[in-house]
Amino acid sequence: MTDSMFPDPEQESTLAPWLKPLWESLDLDKLPNAILVHGQPGIGKFAFGLELAKALLCESTHSTAKPCNQCDGCHWFNTGNHPDFTALVPETHRKLLPQAEYEQDEPTKKSRSTKDDADAESSDKKEKKNISIEDTRSVIEGLSIGSHRGGNRVILIYPLEMLRSDSANTLLKSLEEPPANTIFILLADRLDRVLPTIRSRCRLLAAPRPDRATGLNWLKSQLSATPEIKALEDDIQAIFDEQGGAPYAVLESLVARHHKNEKDELTLSIAASRILLQSMAQAARINWLETAEKIHKAQYAFLLVTMQRWISDLQLVSGGGTARYYPKHANTLKTLSQSAQTTKLLQFWKSLIQARRSENHPLAARIQLEALLSQYQQVFEA
Questions:
Q1: What is the spatial distance between Cα 172 and Cα 347, in angstroms, rounded to a whole number?
Q2: What is the distance of C-alpha 26 from the center of its chain?
Q3: What is the DSSP letter of 94?
Q4: Which of 40, 17, 46 is nearest to 219 (CA)?
Q5: Half-sphere CA count of 221, side-chain side, radius 13 A
Q6: Is 48 within 8 Å of 23 (Cβ atoms)?
Q7: How many CB atoms lie within 10 A of CB 242?
Q8: 219: part of which helix (H) or strand (E)?
Q9: Alpha carbon distance 88, 302 (integer Å)
Q10: Where are the domains positioned within the chain?
Q11: Fewer CB atoms inside 10 Å of the end CB: C or N, the chain?
């Protein structure tokens, strides 16, 4: 799940209410050369990072509140054309940037292909989830040139943990000897996956998750501005729980469901997650081969998170607690807890943790899912 939903740049404030205290703790005139904002996916880190980048590039000399959204710097930023702002994000995240038309920047070699070849490539090619070493080197090499507008230069990288090792080492060299007036805004969903050497050279900012009331109220305000997106109160609350209390992730899910684009990766993953949950509710009767066949084209990481949350709830209920992610399935979880073998359940939990460590590697997702679901079935077999 991405930390997405780019807000309207013309709004006075794009900051979610639970992130405002973090914003107010910053002194824009005394920031170090590298800020690392970390926290759960879907809580608004990307919007926070963009707002911070715009504030650092704001050229207003009259307003004490930045960004002013009125100066030339803010205008260039809002239109995605600020010469001193660079975003290093994988192809899957470029749509989140302000007014960015990256399709125009594709290598011209594509124009030499025939139309049929281009159509075939566009239908089969998957967007890359990693930040390439070529893009990283290009950005770092460009730092030797002074800023175009004479102020700050801002490099935003998200998600930081998706940098390949060679790209991370290239970034590290710049953090060790930062160019003048250059500020790196680094965003990470999983701080534990960021190189310790990079972490040690950044000011760490922990982005909080909102409390339930604040998160749901923010969602209501966002949905009221987009009346075409219909959702029942109970439905919103259920998705809020499933997404671990991450409002931006909930909004992204509702938007994807509204558009009903079956080829959209998020839409496909949400549908697959529903199938997965229905299958896991069958416990020992799960048809793991059939389930893997139905869901293997969805995002592997998304499915692993779904399994982790289901098992977390199952463990909570087994210990006499209350389900956190799937309270609407409380009765099912209670029934399953009565037949789950504690030792096997713990071992399956460890397998999921291990699987998540390699979730972004080019593995055969179907084979991995079959193995995990087969192990899940054994949790309920004496």
A1: 37
A2: 23
A3: G
A4: 17
A5: 12
A6: yes
A7: 25
A8: helix 212-224
A9: 22
A10: 17-206, 260-378
A11: C
Q: Which two tokens stand for residue 125?
A: 């090619």
Would you state the CATH architecture of domain 17-206? 3-Layer(aba) Sandwich (3.40)
d(CA 321, CA 35): 38
Q: Note down pLDDT in tens along the chain; length 382 residues.
A: 555 444 443 444 578 999 999 999 999 988 999 999 999 999 999 999 999 999 999 988 776 788 998 899 999 999 888 999 999 988 777 887 886 544 444 433 333 344 444 444 443 445 566 777 888 888 887 776 766 776 789 999 999 988 888 888 888 988 988 888 899 999 999 999 899 999 999 999 999 999 999 999 999 999 988 888 888 888 899 999 999 999 999 998 888 888 776 666 778 888 899 999 999 999 999 999 999 999 998 989 999 999 999 999 999 999 999 999 999 999 999 999 999 999 999 999 999 999 988 887 756 788 999 999 999 999 998 7
Question: What is the pTM assigned to this prediction?
Answer: 0.80
Give the start-end residues of each E strand in the chain: 34-38, 85-88, 153-157, 182-188, 203-206
- Lay out the sheet containing 203-206: strands in order across: 85-88, 153-157, 182-188, 34-38, 203-206
The Cα–Cα gap between 51 and 54 comes to: 5
Spell out the alpha helix ranges (H) of 260-329. Answer: 265-280, 288-295, 300-318
Q: Which two tokens stand for residue 56?
A: 């650092």
Q: For residue 240, what are the contacts with CB-CB under 8 A and spacing of at least 6? A: 212, 215, 216, 219, 247, 250
**Which CATH class name applies to 260-378?**
mainly alpha
H-assigned helices in 38-132: 45-57, 72-78, 115-124
